[in-house]
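Hi team, as promised in this morning's meeting, here are the two structures we talked about. I've kept the exact order from the run log so nobody has to guess. The first one is mostly here for context; it's the second one we should focus on when we meet again. Sequence first, then the predicted structure tokens.
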Amino acid sequence: MKLLITEDEKELAESIVDFIGTENYIIDTAYNLSDAETKINLYKYDCALIDLMLPDGSGLELIKLLKMNQPKCGIIVITAKDSLDDKLTGLDLGADDYITKPFHLAELNSRLNSVIRRRTFDGNNEIKFNEVTIDTQKREVKINEKPIELTRREYDILIFLLSNKNKVLTKESIVEHVWSNNSNAFDNFDFVYTHIKNLRKKIIDAGGKDYISSVYGIGYKFKSE
């Protein structure tokens, strides 16, 4: 799962990253409106944490941008105690939840998990697709109830493909989603082939069907049949 944290208090942003990073999320951070807008235009996110009071504008503009360009992205608004009007405006614009400063990181993590479950997999911690079962909290994958061992990248690719069934995903979009900011460090994306090949082999060796197909010259698709 890929997250965007937009928070101008760098110490707080770093604390959030340190805490929820243990959940193996892929996390981008932005400390102002302009940087967040750039990232939203470049990358796709499963959930965004947005502080409404940013040094160069209002986080409400980010909510509008996300609702327009990434309607499936969950949104949690971070507000100050005395910003009731902005909080309500954020919810009216389509935010899923809000949390008021100061807050406990454990509470934020709980709200984050809840929003992602509702948005991506109809509120379920367990994703079932035919013989494939995924426990998103434990990051465990089973084929016909038999666990298989995936690397972090293989797991993230599987979730990304499965949440976009029947859509052709380019190698570039896979790298941007799974490798996040590090995607700019690669000269090409041919290495994705190795990760896909290993993922497919592990699923097939465990008795699963080969759902992942290559689309020549473009990328990959997770077939629903």
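And here is the second protein, the one for discussion:
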Amino acid sequence: MNRDNGGVRVLYSFPHKLGADRICYTAWQQVNGIAAAGGDLLVFPGGVTRPVPGGVKVKTTLGRGKIRVPYKVLGSMRAFALHDWIVSRRLERMAGKVDIVHTWPLGALRTLKMAAKLGIPTVLERPNAHTRFAYEVVDRECRRLGVILPSEHEHAYNEEVLRIEEMEYREAYRLLCPSDFVVRTFVEQGCNREKLVRHQYGFDESVYYPSLRPVVPNAGLKMLYVGGCAPRKGLHYALEAWLQSPARETGSFLIAGEFVPSYADKLTPMLADPSVKVLGFRNDVSELMRESDVLVLPTIEEGSALVTHEARGCGCVLLVSDAAGAICQHMDNALVHPVGDVNALAVHITMLDANRSLLTRLRSASLSTVAEISWTSAGRRLLGVYRETIAKYAEDHRIGRD
């Protein structure tokens, strides 16, 4: 790693398969965005499933050549710990060659400690709310609904995961929060506000772009939900609100995603309504978005749902809870309701169904600023966060020495 181009030298540690789905896709897009913004990147992922830009150096930790360490055989937690150990050992030999270390949860503890020992600032990605908060609110909602999550579900309470992540929170110099909601959950759990720094996620403009079709005044409202169908996402609130609204009489509510079985059983009566169409898992989400008027996400806790960025890119108006981490403003380019407020959401659905000029205005306002939430924009913002963090770390340690 060098400073020939004046770039920030970033060691990016990711314990999963870079470029796979969900957070693996997020990390891959982050790498692309940082590289495009001019960062000097050395990436240590567990594995790689998609190519990265030229100039980005990649050294996998859980495989060499065609030989791969199987996560399922080793167990995810042991695989993450092995990744962390390998990265920390590599970092030890790189003193003076790294300006900042970017880590991800469950594979960061040794690396964070080694960086602190070497005097290198660190950031820990927080793709979701504080884990203790998330466990607690999801557990309450499941109990209220009478739904039991599978033991392996990512939001089923796991003491080991919580213990490790809370140690990582303490060791990291800063926590990267993709939304104000995430910041709030950490503050509520007692985290120092100065430790929390905002960045953002994005969307792929080559995939998620708007349709040129005009809004048809007398057509029924087409509302779309995309994501895992589990209590955390609040789909039950969306269904209740939809069935309360006159929009159901001429419109349709499309649900794209796989259900937790016990949750599907609980929602069966509402899912049976003729205006509700359960599509299951889909790989044509961008096209569904272009064909829909609004995207609904009444989630009870979130990081910053990528689906909200992608929907805006396709021209969908957002109907989201204030826990969705969506980058939008109520009545400016979206409609935002308090978590769990079915009546407010029903009013919002009815408003957009009855007032197509409002729908058109919100859509136009959303599309006018959508470039600000692309992955390219996210990369520039993250590089700025790196620079500011490096400067603050140097100042903190200067004051400490004085």
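Starting points for discussion:
Residues 9-202+375-401 form a domain with the Rossmann fold fold (CATH 3.40.50.2000).
The first strand starts at residue 9 and ends at 18.
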